[in-house]
Amino acid sequence: MILLHRIFSRRGGNPDWQRQSFILLLGCVFLAVWATPSGASTNPDLVKTIQGQKAEIINGVAVSPDGQKIASAGDDGAVKVWDLNSGKVVLTLGKDLQSADAVAFSPDGRLLAAAVMAGGRRGNAVQIWDLANGQLVQDMREHTQQINDLAFSPDGNRIASVSNDNTLRIWNVKYGTLETTQKETKNNLLALAYSPDGKKIVATENWDGKIQMWDAVNVRLIRSVQAHADWVLCVAFSPDGKEFVTGSRDGSVYVWDAESGARLRVLRDPELDPVNSVIYSPDGRYVLAATQSRQILTWQKSGGKLFNFYAGHELSVTSLAFPSSGKQLISAGLDGTIRVWNGPGQGGPDSLFAQAMKYELGTDPMEQDLGQAAKLYQQAAENGQAEAMFRLGTMYSQGKGVVKNPDEAKKWWSLAAEKGNAAAKAQLQTGTKVALAVAPQPQAKVEEHRAQPEPKAVEPEDKKVKAAAKEMPKPEPVAKAPVAKDKNSLYEEGLRFFKGEGVTRDYAQAHKLFVEAADMGSAKAQYRLGFMYSLGKGVKKNDLEAVNWWQKAAKQNDPDAQYYLGYMYEIGGGVKQDLGEAKKWYQKAAANGNINAAQSLKMMP
Known about the structure:
By secondary structure, the chain is an alpha+beta fold. Among the domains are: 46-347, YVTN repeat-like/Quinoprotein amine dehydrogenase (Methylamine Dehydrogenase, Chain H, 7 Propeller); 491-603, Serine Threonine Protein Phosphatase 5, Tetratricopeptide repeat (Alpha Horseshoe), CATH 1.25.40. It has 16 helices and 28 strands. A hairpin with a 4-residue loop joins strand 3 (69-74) and strand 4 (79-83). Helix 2 (15-35) packs antiparallel against helix 7 (422-430) and helix 4 crosses helix 5. The radius of gyration is 29 Å and the shape is globular. The N and C termini lie far apart (62 Å).
């Protein structure tokens, strides 16, 4: 604005120029605010971040039944209990633990159980502590390999656990004794969940992507269902017990009928983005999934369209938990943080505005939906959110997502202006024609407005001179030298088209730019091309081509490409399955800082 003021002040002696300058200045204000709304850069749903120790990986998180405490399981063996309100540690449990992979509160909140690797003979243990005094009350060691998950029965009398030793085991909580061991597969068992009535257990497998449905009372396998194309990493029952949801390492999220085992809905098709945790909101209205790409995805139970997402973790999100109120959501991740969010539908006007922006812009991974954006803007505007008022007015003025209505547009702009919204004030002061003529699409690149020199007055001339001037040949236009683009700028431009950030998402254009950057040696572009070919985004799905691009990037030490190359060797995608080669690439990726590769190494035989 200082620069614009200096430009305009040079023409201070001309009243016409001053009027034009004022209109242009207000128009620029409008453009700046429209293109970069203040709400777009904030995260109104994030309530607080609880920071653990540096470099501490949190594998699991749970919330006490009264919603006052959070428990976490750390990769370094730390089992901690936090006060949710203050974010402070109130208990550190366990001695000489090498790792902890899962935690669970008992239904009455008196006990905490954890799946740990402890010292001594048979170190894989299910340990239980009394939270009143922090004393270890049970130390149950029958699993022979890593315990991946555990869960209390709804009555609190038993704990079920699953392990890389291929077994489901059920323990008596009061006596600390093993009641039963069930082995129905040669695959590792990765996750489990009790139904709310305690009559069923669902357990998940790795290599074959199957789910096991158990009669929990008689402890017998009811059926084994081929569920996903890859490891099934997580499972959760709905509060009414009628269905359950699973998430896979292939990125898919499916909903199943709890009685028949039939698949009911596909919430997410396979992506190269593993789903580490799934959960239902306590009221059963929403299904949520935590991903390797650091996002928490939210769907309404009644539909299959992505409803919203949370972003804030710096590394993969590993675990999700809800207090019974559902007002807040708890997440934990490989970045060593626990984050507290507004639960779905629990945020205020700023949350509605932020969600509406995602719909309006089609922010990855959500698809553009102007009608839904307008509805959310309306809700936020009716609750006093000024930017929502302004954007709703603009949608009415352009007929986007709503029926075009200039009166409604002016009404909402006026209400926004009364609340001090600069863009709305500029819109009303410059007039509809001027503002709409220069209004860009949201977050579109705004070109710099340069003031043109004031035209000089034309002095009377001889007609012959004028005619001669007209007949003079026009100078040849000077060709502008093309602006050279380096591989990094080509990659960044391609990424904008790939994600739909500031432009309409266009996978074909992204592919074109990535190829240019990749041919110039960009490892990031080579990695992205592998990603596109593996998923068939903008190109025909081709695992061989995906491996080809990942190999090029991996040779340049790109850790993400090394991780996915290891993944392809592990599952036999585009190459012959070779677990030795998979481990080699996972090790290289882990050495280069890819934590997901380190996690995959832990799970391999």
